[in-house]
Amino acid sequence: MTTSNSNRPTAAQSCHSMDPDLLASCVHCGFCLEVCPTYKLTGDENNSPRGRLRLWREEADGRIPQDPWTDHYTSECVGCLACESACPANVPYGQIFEQVKHQHVAQKRSRPPISLRFAAGLARHQSLFNLAMLPARLLRKAGILPHRFLFKGEPAAFQSTQAYVSHLMQVHRPTGPRVALLTGCLMESLFREINFATVRVLIENNIQVIVPPDQGCCGAFQEHTGMDGVDQLQEQNRIAFGKLDVDAIVSNSSGCGLALGKTMKGAVPVRDVLGYLGEQKLVTRTRMDQAARVYVDLPCHLVHGQKAAGIPANVLDATGYQWELAPQARDCCGSGGVYNIQKPENAQQILARKSAFLNEAVGTPVILATSNHVCMMQWNSARSTGLVKRPYEVRHVIQLLDPLGS
Fold it and tell me: Are residues 19 and 95 in contact, defined by beta-carbon separation less than 8 angstroms?
């Protein structure tokens, strides 16, 4: 699934301008129904990829008018891309869905809430985003979690990932392959302890790390909401990363890695950091307490977006924990970028099915591990909203590899 500056619609364009071959590529086999989270919730054909494609095509052909009915079913889509993995005709559903969302916002058929519009503005200015999230970082360090998505952590209040990398590189001086780290806008501003853990794991495994200071948001936030500004962010990152002499760009967020991969296509390879580590000879952690159990969930934008097979088994083995894939590990958790903010009831119903196993899961402690911070936020909400009654931890897999981790 790829997009480019040339195929993103302008405000004056509509579904009528979309390539008709894209909208007609569905062969109506129905394989997407079995994997679509909103179809499984509602049983409504219109609330499936096949149904949405039909609505968009009929609107583009002029057989139905622009209608709130179409707008509703468009907004119901999580954007998990599981339908792309299931589709035998290789319909580029994600590309079509992204175009339709941008068109609906441009035509004022859809309007993201002011909180998301404000966040999108901050994402274009990382220093402001970091400053705005300082109170939240301090609250997380203090264990005060005023929102259902916030989980405990130890983010640095003031030191940036770039400064941290500079310090560790001078101390350890690794000599192996050289990578650039995408720090991310929300990851850096709120969950930067995950960035720090990523840096420690890479350097411990003799990998050189650089953080280009002029990188920006990957644009995934704007893609999820249909807002403008993606092209400018892509150009900023093409300049920031394209001039580097590195073996790869690595990302510790599957959604961000997918977005940056589209930006850098044909230039520098963008790799999920765990997939990249899976190709190295890894330092292995030793765990004295074997009672803990890790249940691994696979982010949609890793397995369906980036088309990765999963998180490499040798990486999971290197954590030293007993681990297994969580039930329904390849199914969507309901986070969907900002879907859990825009459609909280749907998101919670989707999560309820996936998280129920945690109430009976074996292990002390039970650890739910994944590789995307937005998924981590969604999984944490299973505790704060009462879907899961027993204690459990939510961790990024990279934190389980961290030499400073517990």
Answer: no
Burial class (CB in 10 A: 0-12, 13-18, 19+), 328: middle
**Total count of domains within the chain:** 3
Question: Is residue 111 one of the residues assigned to a domain?
Answer: no
Summarised one tens digit per residue, pLDDT across range 23-50 is: 788 899 999 999 999 999 999 999 999 9
**Integer CA distances (angstroms), 53 to 2, 3, 82, 211, in order:** 18, 18, 15, 40
Contact 244, 210 (CB under 8 A): yes
Q: Are 237 and 265 in contact (CB under 8 A)?
A: no
Sheet holding 208-210, edge to edge: 208-210, 178-182, 248-251, 270-272
8 Å CB contact between 280 and 205 = yes
The model's pLDDT over 76-121, given as tens digits with 9 standing for 90+, comes to 999 999 999 999 999 999 999 999 999 999 999 999 899 898 988 8
Q: Which domain holds residue 377?
A: 293-401
d(CA 73, CA 77): 7
